[in-house]
Structures are given as structure tokens and as C-alpha cells.
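Propose amino acids for all 313 sites.
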């Protein structure tokens, strides 16, 4: 991989077969402790700060800012295909899209001028970091994707089972409790949302919901292209939409596998659905999540209109 002498992390699952069986046994037996360790690593302020240290965003950069499991790879693909006018090619998307706060090698390094490979000279930069850690510059663009936290709970449950074996054994009720107490590896949804919501007033920041992308992908792609100041003709627009579709990304899933070892056979591009929490959570659990998110947003002093976006029907 460009910028790294290490093998891509998505190749690690094969390497893991050489590890002693006891390693996985101990991991499963100490699941909560293992998850806490993952949270400490991926949620480290030091790592997030170090990831962007010394970097000044430029006109070539389009930051994809998301809470985990909120359509991150989807938006990375949308931006990358817009930048390539529907013809962007790569072996793996992290060969050209940096993830600065990723604490282990794998994704291309932030300083690498991967924007030079795009006809528009624009490249996506992925980040799950809270707003306070993301360097802001008027020359760059920032796209914030927000997803219903109830759907995030569902998606993160299945994702965590793939990378942290033992999640399923916790049960859904326990997983919801961990999410609401911010004890999953992914940090606080209200904190992430509260941090980026004030950015909406900046001209170079675009906020979009996962639901809007699902409802009318072509419309949102056109809007994002205009935001990025990229002119697409009808054929190019259609090509971007096609390559950003669930069907295309599912067919080419290896290009979008996350840089973390997963269980063999696990499909991480699952359904591409919104509103799937109704199939996973009880009505009481959905209400519980809504109430907790409202309360925690208020704790952060946020005026994010939660009910307008994500309240249960």
C-alpha cells in the first residue's frame, strides 16, 4: 500500500490463522475488557490529535466526517467517484482515502498527495473523530453524514460481532445499554453530533442524513457534486450513482472492507437499509434510545433538533 511498508490490514484475517487458539479464547472470555481496550485505543484523544498533527487542509480535501456505522464507506465512495467523474478505480478505497486517526498501519498516509490521481484533483479524507480534533480550513470541504442512532445500534452490533467475537453473546438488551452509556468502542453519538452541528453554518460544510441518501441517491449525489464544485454531465452523474449504489458496492465488497480483521465469511455491507432498528429493537428500546439521545444532547448544550430528524414514529 502506498505510504506504508506494512501489508494492508484487510489482509490480516489470513495472517490471524497463525495465532494460537488461546488468543481468541481469552478474547471471548474477557469480551468487555477487550472492548474497553478497543475503546481506549480508537477513542484516544492523543491518537486523534496525532493523526492530524501538522496538517493544513487544502482545496484538494473533502473530509467525510461520520460517527461509526453511519454510511462512512458509502460517502467515501460517493466523493471518490465524483472526484473521478464516475471513473475512479482502486484496489481498495483506503489506497487513496486516508484515515488519519487510524492507530495502526493500513490506510494511505494523510500527507500522500492521492488527490493527484483524480481528474478533479479532489480526494476524500475519512474521519470518525469529534469536531474538536478535525482541522478546519476554509479552503477544504467537509461532509458530515448523520444516521439515526437506533439504526447505528443495529449496524454496530453486527459489525462488532465481526471484529470483536462475542458481541452476539451479550444480547441485544446489553448492547443497547453499552451504547447508551458510551461503553462501545465507537464513542458518544450525541457528542459527535453536538460537535459538528454548529458547523452547518459554514459555507464549506454540508450535512446530509443517511436516510436522505437512501431516499434519493441521484438527487443527493448531484447536490454533493455541486457542493464540491464538480460539474458532471448526465452520463458522469449516472456513472457516479451506479458506482455508489448498494448493489455495486456489495458486488465489489472487497474494495470497501474495513481495515480490521473480521470473521471469515462475514458480510460487512449488509443491507444498506434505514429504519432497520424496528426489526432488531423493541418499541420500548427505541423509545429508550430516543430519550437518552435527547438528554445527552442537552448535556452537551446542543440545539440539534433530534425529533425532527430521528424520533421514532
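Proposal:
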Amino acid at each position: 500500500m502506498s505510504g506504508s511498508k506494512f501489508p494492508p490490514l484487510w489482509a490480516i484475517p489470513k495472517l490471524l490463522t497463525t495465532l494460537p487458539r488461546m488468543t481468541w479464547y481469552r478474547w471471548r472470555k474477557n469480551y468487555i475488557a477487550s472492548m474497553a481496550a478497543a475503546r481506549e485505543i480508537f477513542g484516544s484523544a492523543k491518537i486523534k490529535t496525532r493523526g492530524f498533527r501538522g496538517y493544513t487542509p487544502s482545496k484538494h480535501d473533502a473530509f467525510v466526517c461520520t460517527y461509526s456505522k453511519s454510511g462512512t464507506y458509502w460517502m467515501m465512495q460517493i466523493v471518490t467517484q465524483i472526484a473521478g467523474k464516475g471513473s475512479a478505480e482502486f484496489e481498495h478505497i483506503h489506497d487513496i482515502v486516508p484515515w488519519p486517526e487510524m492507530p495502526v498501519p493500513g490506510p494511505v498516509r494523510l500527507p500522500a498527495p492521492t488527490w493527484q490521481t483524480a481528474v478533479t484533483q479532489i480526494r476524500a479524507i475519512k474521519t470518525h473523530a469529534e469536531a474538536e480534533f478535525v482541522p478546519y480550513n476554509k479552503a477544504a470541504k467537509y461532509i458530515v453524514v448523520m444516521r439515526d442512532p437506533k439504526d447505528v445500534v443495529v449496524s454496530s452490533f453486527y459489525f462488532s460481532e465481526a471484529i470483536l467475537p462475542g458481541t452476539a453473546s451479550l444480547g441485544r438488551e446489553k448492547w443497547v445499554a453499552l451504547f447508551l452509556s458510551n461503553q462501545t468502542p465507537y464513542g458518544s453519538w450525541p457528542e459527535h453530533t453536538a460537535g459538528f452541528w454548529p458547523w452547518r453554518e459554514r459555507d464549506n460544510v454540508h450535512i446530509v442524513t443517511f436516510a436522505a441518501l437512501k431516499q434519493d441517491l441521484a438527487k443527493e449525489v448531484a447536490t454533493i457534486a455541486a457542493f464540491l464544485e464538480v460539474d458532471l454531465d448526465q452520463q458522469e452523474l449516472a456513472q457516479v450513482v451506479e458506482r455508489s449504489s448498494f448493489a455495486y458496492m456489495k458486488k465489489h465488497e472487497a474494495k470497501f472492507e474495513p481495515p480490521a480483521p473480521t470473521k471469515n465469511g462475514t458480510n460487512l455491507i449488509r443491507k444498506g437499509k434505514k429504519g432497520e432498528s424496528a426489526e432488531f429493537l423493541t418499541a420500548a428500546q427505541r423509545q429508550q434510545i430516543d430519550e437518552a439521545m435527547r438528554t445527552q444532547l442537552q448535556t452537551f448544550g446542543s440545539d440539534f433538533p433530534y425529533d425532527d430528524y430521528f424520533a421514532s414514529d
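The chain is about 45% helix and 5% strand. The chain has one domain: 9-310.
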